[in-house]
Amino acid sequence: MTDLPAEVWRALGTVLDPELDEPITDLDFVESCTVSPTGEVSVGLRLPTFFCAPNFSFLMVADAYDAVSAVPGVTRAVVALADHHASEEINGGVAAHSGFVGSFEGEATAELDELRHVFLSKAALAGQDHLARPLVDEGVGPDELAAMTLAEVPDSMELRRLRDRRMAIGLPYDDEAPLLIHGDGSRVTAAQVPLHLRRARLQRVGIETNGEYCKSLLKTRYSEEAKARA
């Protein structure tokens, strides 16, 4: 028998904060998740601040709704964001399948596909640092790195994440794909490796720093609210 609550939680784990490239479950953005015996699912989300960007917030709520709704056995899904200045617009728009523009009529002028692409591209660049840095530390040089394919990189969660990010934005991700590529998918030459890795490192550090900052804000925000209610 399928463990539906576990499957729903697993589905939520595929939903990423677009800027931080981390699952909302790991970030503690899922405040509640209930599954009824008849397959009705209710998910409550929360974010680090009341003024988190509406576009990022909408993406997470919409992605959570889509992920949960796709789980076999789920008969109805409700995903609601709490404690946010645009909760009403976001929750209503996602429930009505209105899209970002329809949810913020008169304010938003485009859907969020381009924004998603931008952040997945940043994550794909940062992922190259995750995989190349240990090799550099072991003494692998620019010539070898420039020639290396994904098949030659030891399997790891980071490698699988990189493949997923590249696949999502149409970049080479199969075994023959180069480890180091530019944003247009072209191979990084040996001469370009040092600068490329510096850029990848900066991108990775930026993402990770933002992630730690947001986790700290979330912890502070909700610990203070808990104290206020006590």
UniProtKB/TrEMBL annotation:
Domain called MIP18 family-like: residue spans: 6-77
InterPro entries in UniProt: FSCA_dom_sf, MIP18-like
Gene3D superfamilies xref list: Fe-S cluster assembly (FSCA)
Organism domain of life: Bacteria
Protein name as it appears in the record: Iron-sulfur cluster assembly protein
Organism name: Pseudonocardia ailaonensis
Lineage: Bacteria, Bacillati, Actinomycetota, Actinomycetes, Pseudonocardiales
